[in-house]
Write a structure and sequence with these properties.
The complex is a heterodimer of chains A (405) and B (146). Chain A has 405 residues and is an alpha/beta fold. In chain A, 39% of the residues lie in helices and 17% in strands. Chain B has seven helices and three strands. A three-stranded antiparallel beta sheet of chain B has the order 1-2-3, sandwiched between helices. The chains are: A alpha/beta (405), B alpha+beta (146). Bound molecules: pyridoxal-5'-phosphate. Pyridoxal-5'-phosphate binds next to helix 4 of chain A. The site of pyridoxal-5'-phosphate has 15 residues of chain A, from helix 4.
């Protein structure tokens, strides 16, 4: 099969793993980086490395312009109302921690916080900690038998006063998608703050925070073809302005004396310390990359591949898929009957196939499914029919090795 | 922590000659498929750890699969019992036991897991970054003997 122009932009994909070509299907863990992202970061370090927002000299002005330009790029990318609504963090995990800490004063003893049962630990533990700090109650939103969020159960839960609801946009384990637009409307109508973990959605779905209608949205640069070490917390400006800063120090300050400190304006009041400048610039290049491809088309193709993969997997002997629906995005979870997920992963690895096998930082979901763990295969924008063929072939070999005598 | 009695250690040790043979077969195999098939067969030579000994307190941390490990010192010799709920890891444990079960403290100290697994053609599986936990198991075995 000929290499598509998209795939050609990712140098790592040409690699051999021993005598097998790399078949990278762990995109939910992190996506690979196109040449232009690598180059943008290299260029920053070679040509205009300087700290941002502080220099009186040209180099710093260049760096600051490039850095702030990415904030506006992100604003457009997710359709935020203002650039100050885009807070740079180190990733989804920091974004959600920063948010949960920032909401300390909003949560009172006895308040209820609802959390999606598919939540990644990063969208669960910060709320658990917040609940413990504030004496609030943390409640899991149940799943249906199809492993989708139980909307009726959520409706019932929302009949009692609720302060906050934390949802997954796309499950990193199952690939199931929550209809955020509909859910956020109900949640906000019930007077609760709606927080969405978009880590797995940002690279696979168009994200328009106006249309989604939630209050906060968090994602990581490294899952959208950008570098590690950078992520975003988006929030509605009036709410964002009420967050207590988790980190204090550097550039987030207006005035400091030994008796008191006045915090500065958004976005800086939530961005203490030197930000990951090269990474932000790399993220800007990732957005350029995403804007340079026909994303509708690419996302459609990716979903078709996912559906093909679901069908081919389901047809293999002994394979069970979990929560596999045609409208899922990005990922498929499965196990091989009677075999440990780790064995599957190790034997696929021998054939150059990279997938993830484990609990996927979603232990409560594993408990709900009654599993110790599972295998997860996840696609990216460069995944193609070859990857699917190779993966299925390698899995057949694996099944023979594990179950054959 | 409660420990299995000596007879269970002895039962594991009975398999030592077969395990050593299996290890040589793994070392001799060229194709990865053959290597892993033989490795998993080696795992089958190990007696199953009875369920009552599959206790959390005996689990080696740092492994994606469950790995249980026990140690008994008997007349200057270090005996081990180990098992896992995953086939490949069970196989790796079998090979490891073939190399060092019933060793003296001096032999244990001199044992290089790197050299041993390189000889078996499985060097890639012995790395702290691998979730199979082999590295942690070796570490734990050495620590238990001290
Ligand atoms: C759904 C989800 N939320 C949060 C995270 C955490 O992201 P990060 O490690 O980039 O902070 C991940 C990453 O695996 C994820 O898949």
């Amino acid at each position: 099969m000929s290499r598509s122009p998209i795939r050609q932009q990712f140098p790592i994909l040409n690699q051999m793993m021993g005598s097998y070509p790399l078949c990278y299907l762990d995109n939910a863990a992190t996506s690979q980086k196109p040449e232009r992202v690598i180059q943008a970061m290299d260029d920053y370090y070679r040509r205009y490395n300087a700290n941002v927002h502080r220099g009186s000299y040209q180099l710093s002005a260049t760096a600051t312009s490039a850095f702030e330009a990415v904030r506006r790029q992100l604003q457009q990318f997710i359709h935020a109302a203002h650039p100050q609504e885009v807070i740079f963090t180190h990733g989804t995990t920091e974004a959600l921690n920063l948010l949960a800490y920032g909401l300390n004063k909003h949560i009172k003893p006895g308040d209820r916080i609802l959390v999606d049962s598919t939540a990644h630990h990063a969208n669960l533990v910060p709320w658990q900690q917040l609940a413990q700090r504030c004496g609030a109650e943390l409640i899991a939103i149940p799943l249906t038998d199809e492993l989708r969020l139980d909307r009726q159960a959520l409706r019932t839960l929302l009949q009692q006063p609720t302060r906050l609801v934390a949802l997954n946009h796309v499950s990193n384990v199952l690939g199931t998608v929550n209809d955020i637009a509909a859910l956020a409307q109900e949640i906000r109508a019930a007077g609760a703050i709606c927080v969405v973990d978009g880590a797995q959605a940002i690279g696979h779905l168009p994200v328009d925070v106006q249309q989604l209608g939630c209050d906060f949205y968090a994602f990581s640069g490294h899952k959208m073809y950008g570098p590690t070490g950078v992520g975003v917390l988006w929030g509605r400006l009036p709410l964002l302005a009420t967050l207590e800063p988790m980190l204090t120090g550097g550039e987030m300050i207006k005035t400091v004396s030994f008796t008191q400190t006045e915090f500065g304006e958004l976005p800086f009041r939530l961005e203490a310390g030197t930000p990951p400048i090269a990474e932000v610039i790399g993220l800007g290049a990732a957005i350029d990359f995403l804007n340079s491809v026909d994303r509708n088309n690419a996302q459609q193709q990716e979903q078709q591949l996912l559906q093909q993969l679901q069908q081919q997997l389901a047809a293999l002997p002994g394979i069970t898929l979990y929560g596999a629906h045609a409208d899922n995005r990005g990922a498929i979870a499965f196990n091989l009957a009677g075999e440990h997920h780790q064995d599957v992963g190790i034997l696929l690895d021998q054939q150059g196939v990279a997938i993830r096998c484990g609990h996927h930082c979603a232990m409560p979901l594993m408990d709900a499914m009654g599993l110790k763990g599972c295998c997860r295969v996840s696609l990216g924008i460069y995944s193609n029919a070859d990857d699917i063929t190779r993966f299925i072939q390698a899995l057949r070999t694996t099944i023979t090795l594990l179950t054959g005598e | 922590m409660e420990q299995p009695d000596q007879p269970l250690f002895a039962l594991f040790l009975q398999q030592q000659p077969q395990l050593q043979q299996a290890a040589e077969a793994v070392a001799a195999a060229n194709q990865w498929q053959d290597k892993y098939r033989l490795l998993m067969q080696a795992g089958k030579l190990l007696p199953q750890l009875p369920p009552q000994w599959q206790q959390d307190a005996a689990r080696v941390s740092g492994c994606e699969s469950a790995v249980w490990l026990y140690h008994l010192q008997q007349q200057q010799r270090h005996l081990y019992l180990a098992d896992s709920d995953a086939r490949v890891v069970r196989g790796l444990i079998a090979l490891l036991l073939a190399g060092i079960n019933n060793a003296s403290a001096t032999e244990l100290a001199a044992f290089s897991a790197e050299t041993y697994f390189a000889h078996l053609g499985l060097a890639g599986q012995l790395s702290p970054s691998r979730s199979n936990g082999l590295y942690a198991i070796v570490d734990m075995m050495k620590n238990l003997s001290k």
